Amino acid sequence: MLLLRSSRPIARRRAAHISKYPDAQVISLGIGDTTEPIPEVITSAMAMRAHSLSTVEGYSGYGAEQGDKKLRAAIASTYYKDLAIDETDIFVSDGAKCDISRLQVLFGSEVKMAVQDPSYPAYVDSSVIVGQTSLFQKDIEKYGNIEYMRCVPENGFFPDLSTISHVDIIFFCSPNNPTGSATTRDQLIHLVQFAQDNGSIVVFDSAYSLYISDDSPRSIYEIPGAKEVAIETSSFSKFAGFTGVRLGWTVVPKELLFSDGFPVAKDFNRIVCTCFNGASNIAQAGGLACLSPEGLKAMVETIKFYKENTKIIVDTFKSLGFDVYGGRNAPYVWVHFPGEAGLDVVTTPGSGFGPAGEGFVRVSAFGHRANIMEAAKRIKQLYK
Amino acid sequence: MLLLRSSRPIARRRAAHISKYPDAQVISLGIGDTTEPIPEVITSAMAMRAHSLSTVEGYSGYGAEQGDKKLRAAIASTYYKDLAIDETDIFVSDGAKCDISRLQVLFGSEVKMAVQDPSYPAYVDSSVIVGQTSLFQKDIEKYGNIEYMRCVPENGFFPDLSTISHVDIIFFCSPNNPTGSATTRDQLIHLVQFAQDNGSIVVFDSAYSLYISDDSPRSIYEIPGAKEVAIETSSFSKFAGFTGVRLGWTVVPKELLFSDGFPVAKDFNRIVCTCFNGASNIAQAGGLACLSPEGLKAMVETIKFYKENTKIIVDTFKSLGFDVYGGRNAPYVWVHFPGEAGLDVVTTPGSGFGPAGEGFVRVSAFGHRANIMEAAKRIKQLYK
């Protein structure tokens, strides 16, 4: 039984540091966890919903497994307005990580998947759990029967698709965790074309799309033809600080069909209804508040704050002469860092996200401003 | 692709009735969904937690996937006090239904499961989804490669275990949905013994345990030796009206080992960490309030209310000469009802829970008092 790779190296490194320097204040820019309070307009809506549950008029029991109709409609009109995604294409969930697993249960053990290398570990880990892979090959640090699509500075963090053998499912995260790079429109057109030519399904993870500053697509459905080949999963976690509240969604367009013509959405709906009972009604009330005019404005402010953090981190490493990637369209900075990272700022070793991450660290911009400033100071002291 | 059986017949029947009698007020005692407001001591705690998330001191991001330490400890000390279940054996979740699926992912497609017939449809449906079963056999209304353990009045709703062939996993719900019968201590000793003798794992669903009025075991861990063979799953849904809030838990004792000696809890922990990201922090604050002295008292009141409903339903059917089962230890009444149920009170046809439910209806006691009284009146008018 192989252990999961996810955040173990971080936890171990942190513990080792604390035992070595018990008085030091360790600053962790390692974990991609939000730190700033949720805007009050959103928490007030959740508190009101909680209170209403103790009234006869306000009480409700089981909601629809697919989510509240109003919230599904608000997600469709806010994020997919001109993309012809219907509210019935949207499945509200308790977060993207959970939906990734439900999608893997949908795909089953007989498929072959491809994944960006490096990438968010949940794609590979869930693939292992549902039995799609063969054994871990220690020498190359890869599981068998997964296509690792190398994404490195040399190829602009977009894989050379001509080298990819047949795959059924392509997990693709843009803006990417950990490299922070967003896929351009031309690249995404290329990916959709590849999926069309090969009969693959793309699972597009857009959990960081609101961090995009340039004209990179925020949704894969901006690409013509994507509805026939792509599922999109997203989340309120990194937009509104909902990492602990738990709320996300997955889009499965009715146009997406299995090779026998059966709609994928019908099978996904079956999984959702059998394996899930809807996101918490209080969290859903929060999601609806996020998408109100005040909520949208407040989320923009939160994201702006983390983007300022990102800039501080990018500038710090750049000023020291490091090769720095990401940051512009994502809260993650990807630093070429062949040696050991500084002991009093914890970052995540890039190899934790896949073999192509070797020699890099991921620096997360989620943190209180004072901690980010202190981290920048320490990094400068160590490496100047 | 076979459609799920779950609540479809109910929905269809209801719709048919509404179209036939558009002016009638249909009373649904069909769906097992709570109707009474959540006690204020519990909703206030959730509202407070929601508000605190907009403060620097109160904000928190990702929680532990296994749940807040405090809540795990409170569940252990409240429900498993003298049963030597440790807080680390408890995995907090977004509900029993979701945990049933995660357990099925853990068990995989190679196992054979047994299920009470009739029973809550999620056991069979999730088994079908992970690929444990063979095709549905229409003539006998059963999936292949599942052991349907017949539970009928003739055997006191406890299966004849001597007729059961080898099974790996036994899903067992007590008090049972839909029959409302609770397993006695002697029966449960027998079940644990059977699992020990056959190397099976029992998944004991105790979602209705607080409805028990007699001395039937509320937890399978009351039976000596159960920790070596049983997982227990439970929920705040039917205790505190959390059907929409979403909160439950699963107990996987460290004493439970796979045949190769590997602890089941370690693998389940891996599933939980990969496929789930913890229950909503607001819902967990509600769970903790449920287990406070005031919360426990308030939950007792809610359950008492539904038990009064149950008594009205039982008395109604008994006064008309029907054979009535359940009700004493569960919010479900199981009525022998070979004909068609009355058109203006919707109940659930027993066959929706498995072939042995044929000729019965399940009457749910979840409802406002006025509706229960009106239903009782209509039933009496129809069948007197």
What secondary-structure arrangement, pairings included, does this model have?
2 copies of one chain form a homodimer.
Chain A: H1 8-20, E1 27-28, H2 40-52, H3 69-79, E2 90-93, H4 96-107, E3 113-117, H5 122-130, E4 134-137, E5 142-144, E6 146-150, E7 169-173, H6 185-198, E8 201-205, E9 230-235, H7 237-240, E10 248-251, H8 264-275, H9 281-290, H10 293-319, E11 324-326, E12 332-336, E13 345-346, E14 348-349, E15 360-364, H11 369-383
Parallel strand pairs in A: 1-13, 3-6, 3-7, 7-8, 8-9
Antiparallel strand pairs in A: 2-10, 4-5, 9-10, 11-12, 12-15, 14-15
Brief description of this entry?
2 copies of one chain form a homodimer. The first copy, chain A, has 11 helices and 15 strands. With about 375 residues, chain A is α/β, with parallel strands linked by helices.
Keywords:
homodimer, 384 residues, alpha/beta, Aspartate Aminotransferase, domain 1, Aspartate Aminotransferase, domain 2, 2 domains, 4-stranded antiparallel beta sheet, disordered N terminus, PyrdxlP-dep_Trfase_major (chains A, B), transferase (chains A, B)
Architecture overview:
Two copies of one chain form a homodimer. The first copy, chain A, is of the alpha/beta class. Chain A folds into two domains: 120 residues, Alpha-Beta Complex (Aspartate Aminotransferase, domain 1); 246 residues, 3-Layer(aba) Sandwich (Aspartate Aminotransferase, domain 2), CATH 3.40.640.10. Chain A has a seven-stranded mixed beta sheet, with helices on both faces. In chain A, strands 11-12-15-14 form a four-stranded antiparallel beta sheet, with helices on one face. In chain A, strand 11 and strand 12 form a beta hairpin. The longest helix of chain A is centred in the last third of the chain and has 27 residues. Chains A and B meet through helix 2, helix 4, helix 5, helix 8 and helix 9 of A and helix 2, helix 4, helix 5, helix 8 and helix 9 of B.
